[in-house]
Records
---
Amino acid sequence: MGKKLAKPKSQTPAAPSRVIITHVHPEIEGGRFPAKRVEGDIVAVTADIFTDGHDLISAVLLSRRQGESAWTESPMRGLVNDAWTGSFAVREQGIYEYTLQGWVDHFKSWQRNLAKKAEARQDVLTDLKIGAQLLEDGSRRAASEGAAAAAQKLNEWASLLRGSQSATASSGGGPAIDAAAATELALSGEVTALMAQYPDKRLAAVYDPVLQVVVDRARAGFSAWYEMFPRSWSSEPGKHGAFRDCEAHLPYIAAMGFDVLYLPPIHPIGHTYRKGKNNSPVAGPDDVGSPWAIGSEEGGHKALHPQLGRFEDLERLIARARDHGLEIALDIAYQCSPDHPYAKTHPEWFLHRPDGSIQYAENPPKKYQDIYPLNFESEHWQSLWEELKSVVLFWIGKGVRIFRVDNPHTKPFAFWEWLIREIKAEYPEVIFLAEAFTRPKVMQQLAKLGFSQSYTYFAWRNTTQELTEYFTELTRSEMAEYFRPNLWPNTPDILTEYLQSGGRPAFMARLVLAATLGANYGIYGPAFELCENKPLAPGMEEYLNAEKYEIRSWDLSRSDSLKELIARVNRARKENPALQSNSNLLFHKLDNDQLIAYSKMTADRSNVVLVVVNLDPRWAQSGWVNLPLEDLGLSPYIPFEIHDLLTGARYTWRGPRNYVRLDPNAIPAHLFRVGRPRSG
Amino acid sequence: MGKKLAKPKSQTPAAPSRVIITHVHPEIEGGRFPAKRVEGDIVAVTADIFTDGHDLISAVLLSRRQGESAWTESPMRGLVNDAWTGSFAVREQGIYEYTLQGWVDHFKSWQRNLAKKAEARQDVLTDLKIGAQLLEDGSRRAASEGAAAAAQKLNEWASLLRGSQSATASSGGGPAIDAAAATELALSGEVTALMAQYPDKRLAAVYDPVLQVVVDRARAGFSAWYEMFPRSWSSEPGKHGAFRDCEAHLPYIAAMGFDVLYLPPIHPIGHTYRKGKNNSPVAGPDDVGSPWAIGSEEGGHKALHPQLGRFEDLERLIARARDHGLEIALDIAYQCSPDHPYAKTHPEWFLHRPDGSIQYAENPPKKYQDIYPLNFESEHWQSLWEELKSVVLFWIGKGVRIFRVDNPHTKPFAFWEWLIREIKAEYPEVIFLAEAFTRPKVMQQLAKLGFSQSYTYFAWRNTTQELTEYFTELTRSEMAEYFRPNLWPNTPDILTEYLQSGGRPAFMARLVLAATLGANYGIYGPAFELCENKPLAPGMEEYLNAEKYEIRSWDLSRSDSLKELIARVNRARKENPALQSNSNLLFHKLDNDQLIAYSKMTADRSNVVLVVVNLDPRWAQSGWVNLPLEDLGLSPYIPFEIHDLLTGARYTWRGPRNYVRLDPNAIPAHLFRVGRPRSG
């Protein structure tokens, strides 16, 4: 039942509340930003709540969907050291609000004191009269809330307490009971429960500010992405692929168990200063250019590259993908080629050089003459913002609900905060992934202001120590409240040295790490499953013959493809709820630095997954894993079964120390389900 | 020169600032509470400041005294990882405000890009034209601020840049210079400095909220307190002492080096339910009662106990104390004896029992019938607050500026916040010490809301581990910003088990710990210097024959008195600035848990003090101290002299590990000044 917070009117202002509510969690920058959850989550809220002196207090958590006027109350429970905790469920997408209310509970304090006095066999007749008054006050509150039966009950009890007499005194007529019986009644569960329903909140404190939590659909918290260049998927090598070619390959991608299919920009590509193969500054006549050089005479951000197909083709791809359990994600890259229509129709959105030409992108001494950045400091910023919003709405209109945002850190934070809030107010199901590999504070700010998921430094965290430190920060610091990591072992721009030098074993290790350390992860394929690892030049992270600049043709049937392993990993993710969130990630001690071990489990510990990965792509490594059995719900005396979901092998372990050996030339990882395996 | 933050008017709203300012320190609960400093301090402020993209930013710290309209700007300096730092001086008592301003610095960015292009020998003629525009804009800003000379200079440079030609081109007439010379000019210190004076702040971000720091006088941060019961200081044993008797003992107290002389309540004492000796519930006819049972027919909180003297006696004591470098602190205990005038004149300020009598204090099953607590939830809370404020103002009128507040945690937090703010608005020099030994969050809240100093758990932190953990929290956590510890090894209520069992060596150890771990400390004397350590009963922390309930007579000339040691310790505190603040407290490793070692040093490391204490009051203990020489400004190769300020002994140490041995039967502590001793 909803409650409003209106205070009773009074002639003189009531005394300020004696209750302090502080250190509320989650609370990001004093409530400036919302926390993030997915639908169905339980939001646990903790706070320090206390009052002066020795009186007892009570507190409730108040929550509501944004826009509702009434609050729902959930009880809060005192822990140690003035910390309190409570929770509320977020069942639907959108924004929820929450705050806390606490008050000095005179009735509860009175009960405590009465119990102590009774125990010390002190005279309590005066106390019972005071209690009668408290019950009568409660009765009036019940009556004013229309609870006539409760009001009457409370009044009856009040009469009994008021009329009670000491056991030694002679009892007259009327409803008198002796003090011992009155004490017992006053401390009874029945009285306690009814008074708790009608507490005296006249001097209650309400936490200010009201805090928010953004509730996304489940996929924002758990997803497996597959990135592909549609133009490379033609069945005829060298020919420009189209949406229809993608359609044909949906079963291939779905069989690996992905649920998001992300396409780089699908718009017309500029020809002025078009980049050639291998990022050459000069393009040949047949060079297709980078999809991120958006816009030509054929259109801009709301147009399709003619060779990919028409809108009906895209819409059919979206529908067919859905049939395969795949959702299409598009790329939002707010930048223009010199041939973009905006350059002619809206020159005011760009910075101009003294000669009147539009300023191209540069990072001196490098020039990027194929790109015109938008000028967000333009006097015409408002029309620019509106236009950019209309781009997102346009693709929403085509059925797209997931956007991977290119280089968000090169556009103003205030713009993103506005854009995402505007879009999600109308379409709360939209997911924005921030592609930013930049300074930590910048990446955090993008996540705080609203991005649903974020790229991370995962690609460059290779050792046990690096991974442990980074994922402890991601899952144990305040970042866990607002930053949802999406882990990519590779991207079209990033081929790490580890993958270059480690080859297939390295790809396998990084796959398992990405898919199990993070509830959200993705790969750039087929480069990933085919272990593409030749760099443009030694020491560079760019690919040789990068798909960004040319059409590639992939032999998907190669026998060394990782597609089977990927399918097993994604199946393990789907079947084990422990892998579907980032909380409860625990790293375990091992006596070999080349191995990393960690577990994840559900809050009720019904599902426990243990992962061990050999980070050395060359040699077999072995060691002893130390498990905190109690934390994992295991007995040190009873053997437990572990089931490797990658190989199907089953082992029986016992006690905290157990031996593992992983050969990178087979599979460099264990992905164990711990405990008695369920069916399947 | 002060600056205002008014923004230029414009037809269309300017684009939102691209600069983010976040994670500002100090900032307590989002600016809800002020940080604390003392006059003369430098307030260092750090924040994360960044923008999107690759532009450079500039930032300033803005500060002012509360009430001033103009801000003073101090430059901020970028550190690593988007952290910035700046500082401002707080020269006077009162409240200062501060905030931050940051902006994208297009001129600085342009200079950086120009330098890179010039280094890469690219053509920069277009860039120089862009720079000319930036200089002209700067010139206009200078002109609008009335800086005609600067405006002209900037315009001249702009002309040079605009007219520059590539070195190969033939130079016509006019002021043309070649591009290399123009670049050199544009990057010169002269141009940089002048442009930095007239930055383009149109799109600057200003941090919201404005933050505050309360600046107290120096004594709030550095003080040595001596607590005494005036009635025990008569020269005639057993006779009720008076202010005049205290006067006679001022030289004794001053010789020990204290600067605050704190008197328990000096008001008339109630006789109803007066407590007898040793807290007996029944007082004999000669029992003097507890000074905290305030009020009788002779007056309440604004009256003097007749046997102590008259107001002129108090005022003379205050003046004489000042002559000895001692400031009198009074006790504020907002509670009443049943005989207090308020009980008759303002019954509405108390809670009443069903029989109409006023509710006495209780902590069931204990009753404190000699005390009536005030009811802060009364409808008449406003007149109560005003009256309580008038009590403080009354004693301020008598010349008192330091108040030790009894049991502040049993009165509402909102009341204290109001009271302290009201008093300090008029009398910023007033110091309030919170006597609260209660839950950590409650003690923190009292300090946050305004108490200048706070009692601590020091009395119960005895081991190396306990002391290290507690003082790390006090000096390294956010508490350092608002919680000024005042360390008391004993009080009239607290005789710890450590002092009871450890005797004189324990008193010496605790003295040195209190006086050197905390810039503020105090002792309850003469019980302390005479090592009074008999408990009321085994296992109790109360004194036998507690001075709270009876007149004691002390033999100040006893040969085992610690007064000489106390004088040496207080002299060391006065002569070593390192001991006058709590920052830079560093604990050092030792291979013997019975010993504790720590150092304090001034920010410039010109004064370094090293303390080693034997915590075992029974046996001599020895061990090796490990010093972080580099942190202390010492060389590992050059011997350094240490001078024990307690014994006068001098030693030469070398390297990080040095041997100490402390015998509790001599002096269980070293208080070393490190480095070449200065005179004296």
---
Amino acid sequence: MKQEKLKFVLRGTLIHAPAVGVVEILENALVAVDNRGQISAVTSPGSPDYAALEQAATQAGKLERLAPQEYLLPGLVDTHVHAPQWPQLGKALDRPLDEWLQQYTFPLEARYADAEFAERIYQHLVHTLIANGTTTALYYATIHLESSVRLAEICLEQGQRALVGKVAMDNPDQCPEYYRDASAGQALEDTERFLEQVPDMPGNADGLVRPVITPRFIPACTDELLRGLGELAQRSGCHVQTHCSEGDWEHGYVLERHGKTDTCSLDDFGLLTARTVLAHCDFINESDMGIIKGAQTGISHCPLSNLYFANAVFPARQALDRGLQVGLGTDIAGGANPGILHNCQMAVTASRAREDGVNPDLPPATRGTPGTRIDFREAFWMATAGGGEALGLKVGKFVKDYAFDAIVVDTQAPDSNLIVREDLDEGDDILQKIIYNADRSNIKRVWVQGKLIKS
Amino acid sequence: MKQEKLKFVLRGTLIHAPAVGVVEILENALVAVDNRGQISAVTSPGSPDYAALEQAATQAGKLERLAPQEYLLPGLVDTHVHAPQWPQLGKALDRPLDEWLQQYTFPLEARYADAEFAERIYQHLVHTLIANGTTTALYYATIHLESSVRLAEICLEQGQRALVGKVAMDNPDQCPEYYRDASAGQALEDTERFLEQVPDMPGNADGLVRPVITPRFIPACTDELLRGLGELAQRSGCHVQTHCSEGDWEHGYVLERHGKTDTCSLDDFGLLTARTVLAHCDFINESDMGIIKGAQTGISHCPLSNLYFANAVFPARQALDRGLQVGLGTDIAGGANPGILHNCQMAVTASRAREDGVNPDLPPATRGTPGTRIDFREAFWMATAGGGEALGLKVGKFVKDYAFDAIVVDTQAPDSNLIVREDLDEGDDILQKIIYNADRSNIKRVWVQGKLIKS
């Protein structure tokens, strides 16, 4: 097989997390990207191949240098986005979950029957996520086939790596009449059509955008639908996403209806695969963790929405220590911030609340749970390589044969709250500062599969 | 006494919190500002004086109209900033408090003996806070007289309303030799000089910038110093700031050393006045609350640093319900974000963690503390009028005779994550969205005392 040709070589400081809790900083490194958009080499000064690569790239006019205040990071991976909820970002967070769903969310999602409405909102959402450095996103769309396909097309047009699901929800007991699939059969048929149409979209031969089997969550689906979607998952090998043990109500509902946890129930329906991502998993127990690990299923940790709608914080430390595949999710719009860097800090913050506890009336010994904190290194892992792992995609670190999905963070952008000073900051201090204060104004360039999509 | 002359009149939509938990939105309102920078009138269409004021302002060429997507909010009040820690924003948050203080913070603060270093950092800090909409800030400087005065001058030059304290800390048991006042006497003398110099700064006749008596916290001060500063507070009538019952260690230290809580101890030293602001107060008890209320002392709630260095979350709901004067503080750099709007959402988020709890292994009934949440309305109160009340300043709402300290939030700023749509959002939804997603790019204009300082 012939060597793919060199597309470009970047020289600059790279920061990535090659393993959980490990931050690697490579100064003046070279990253070579081939014509397929894959990383063909990563090398540092002193390596035997460094000078040759630099010389070859220079001669071919393909060497690009980052400025000293610029850092190359892996593109950010958002493993849980409800695309139709975008206009609701930051709204109604003071309402109880039931009201939030029935009075705000479902009526809003129902509007995506209107293709023109969907077009405007989805264009703006995908543009905004890219601007915030999200190179891969796992989206819930709505029950509507047409606008769900349109979301997939928009991701492809804007160049974002995306996994998109037409939502399946047919349970009349839990879903309003104006917003649910007409029947399990209809939901399955629409899902199958969606699974056919997305890979066939013009320009999608390389599978940049993929379809996802998406039972909303167990309460919203009949057993017939869950069974059918499980069979489809086994047959098609497609990705699957759903919510799992998110909050007290939902977790209790499934225990009551199926006599077992979400994890066991989803597993029994054939919905736990190596290409499944379970959002939240806040109330999974030891046994659930074992099942999820055995199935090589991914988890989307959504720290911000944990603190609003989940009644507890996902045990991130424990899950990472057990070797589960955990990525981060914004959970737009249950989570009110579209930035995965922001969700990195929230993952740390939420874990600090777990470790120390929050109630000053309790004595320190019983207030928190020792050993449950994570730090910015683990959060950064989840935001990048961990998300890639959860999705089964080779993205999220600078390693040969991984896709070149990357962002440049400019620490000296004007109008930014980030303060990095050469004389005071070094090493992973800089990454921590980026996580805490970089915003979209600092995200200067974004590539997906070697293609520049923000500059 | 003659009527002050009209400086300008703004017409547009105003949003403010005239009382705890109450958001008032005045569409097409007029705010008249006089030559002293005070609000001379606030009126809405339909009021008898509206047409006359509009006509008078138009004829005088003094009517300015906000665009439909612009909202006028009170300027934001930050009641707790460690100015010298600015370069440390977002750094070392993964370190234990002791290491954070001894290895990072104290060595950094010691550098402000260097006036040139102080100059660069303080200019950048004050500029950044203004850019984020902070019109009033209560600052800790360092132990150094010269650079502390310089901070006060910089605030005045940049036009920010500020209260600045030269830090007093003389206890050899708790403060490193390289960074403490030489003696209680020296600290008192320097504080007195600071109290004389700040009011006398050229251009400060109206008291835009004021000096603050600033014992760092009880552990850092000898009783001799605390006694002297208390006498100075009583004699001078100046503002006072210190930390109070922030975390387990500090709270326990004071119980051990003085046999009483921080609140009682500070009160006994004469440091609890109507012009005192106590940072944190996480571990104050019912009796402490009564003492603080009786003294009309303010509290600075710092939600972000609560979750990193305080071992618990301040009981904001309880304090507001008891009628205490509570403002918000960024606690830079124990809190890693310079924006008070961001700290509004963190105040809500932290209170949600308190109400629901965070540990999924506990049953719902014992996981959290019912009735402890606040929502964005209370957070916004604390960020504006509550902060003003805590400081004893007439700022933070649009009321006649209050200072015109205000910001314009542009909800359609390019490169913003804020999504406000006329057809979907109305009323205080818009405020909630602003709190959750406006950043400095949305803060288009900033006035302090009627003077435009960002545009």
